[in-house]
Design goal:
Strand order of the largest sheet: 8-9-7-6-12-13-14
CATH architecture of the largest domain: 3-Layer(aba) Sandwich
Order of helices and strands: EHEHEHEHEHEHEHEEEEHEHEHEH
Strand content: 15-25%
CATH topology of the largest domain: Rossmann fold
Distance between the termini: 52 Å
Shape: elongated
Number of strands: 14
Number of domains: 2
Length: 337
């Protein structure tokens, strides 16, 4: 990154703050240190920060409450990373559902920490994309056995996905593919939770899975998920796209190739621009795209990126997306018979 970006480190242990400041200063970030959440909130009133790195266990106001207040009062919202010694799955999930964009356990891995801060900042500063999609007409005439749905989300995704999917019927005549940005541990536990809270079968996608209707396939950590022309799943550990892996664009593009006009893309809450290229590809293949109303999103930049790109889409609240998916799947299935 050629520009210098501002990072706010919030930790009541001075040695931790100094360590993180040294690491980030070496890669050209301007770092401000605060020892309490109150100091951090005051700093955020007077200076723009692209990233906030916060500890959890702090006196008076802890890191979770700090994250909530940042999301309520700061605009634009910075990328927020929780760095803490708490390592249980329940703690990690609680932090992410409270609004953290990422979660790093202490002691930190130097290279991993620097990469995740850099990738996070890149996500929030690169939110526009030039659309150059060119789809051949022949791909629009594919007739698969069923329609298919692909969903992209990031920050705030787990509870939003559950709200979206919990009322879908168990006999839904379509597979659903989900890209939720996050590390492997998060996606594994989320897939388990989703299986408990929805009427459909849920599984963490595996390489060469034969796609079945009525199954939700969650992209695993560190792998893009793609759909082959013969309706199998391929996992790809190639380079990150849009600074994330898994990314939605590889899924959306491959699904449009495989399902043509019988595919549906959904973009939910999240930071960055992931899904814009793929959403455009779906529309130009004859499919349909739904976008969560940004005013209802924990992080509105992903929905806004699709809307601002000019891609033809329907902007709806979550409950309306659910009903539209049911209706659209039934209509598409009728056209396949």
């Amino acid at each position: 990154m050629s520009d210098i970006y501002n990072v706010l480190v919030v930790d009541d242990e001075l040695t931790n703050s100094i360590l993180m400041k040294r690491l980030l200063s070496k890669i050209n970030f301007n770092v401000t240190m605060c020892s309490t959440a109150t100091e951090a909130l005051n700093a955020l009133k007077t200076q723009k920060f692209e990233c906030v790195v916060t500890d959890w266990m702090m006196p008076q106001i802890d890191g979770i409450e700090l994250i909530r207040r940042i999301r309520e009062t700061v605009s634009p919202i910075p990328y927020i990373i929780m760095v803490t010694a708490l390592v249980t799955d329940s703690a990690k999930n609680y932090a992410l559902e409270s609004g953290a964009d990422d979660y790093i356990a202490k002691p930190i891995d130097v290279n991993d920490f620097a990469t995740r801060v850099s990738d996070g900042i890149n996500k929030i500063i690169h939110t526009t994309v030039e659309i150059k999609t060119n789809v051949s007409k022949s791909k629009r005439n594919l007739k698969p056995k069923t329609p298919a749905i692909a969903i992209a989300t990031s920050t705030g995704g787990p509870p939003t996905l559950i709200s979206l999917l919990k009322d879908l019927p168990s006999d839904l005549d379509a597979p659903i593919f989900i890209v939720q940005h996050g590390p492997p541990w998060m996606l594994e536990t989320f897939a388990q939770r989703l299986g408990r809270d929805t009427n459909l079968e849920v599984k963490l996608a595996q390489n060469n899975d034969v796609i079945q209707k009525g199954v939700i396939y969650v992209a695993p950590g560190d792998h893009h998920i793609k759909i082959t022309p013969d309706y199998k799943i391929i996992l790809d550990d190639g380079p990150k796209e849009n600074f994330v892996r898994p990314a939605a664009d590889p899924l959306f593009v491959s699904m449009a190739d495989a399902y043509g006009q019988f595919c549906i893309g959904v973009c939910l809450t999240g930071l960055g621009k992931d899904s814009v290229v793929g959403a455009d590809y779906i529309v130009k293949s004859g499919g349909r795209v739904y976008v969560q109303d940004p005013t209802t999103a924990v992080a509105p930049s992903m929905p806004n990126a699709v809307i601002n790109s000019g891609i033809k889409s329907e902007v709806l609240k979550i409950e309306d997306i659910t009903q539209s998916l049911i209706k659209n799947v039934n209509e598409l299935k009728a056209n396949l018979n």
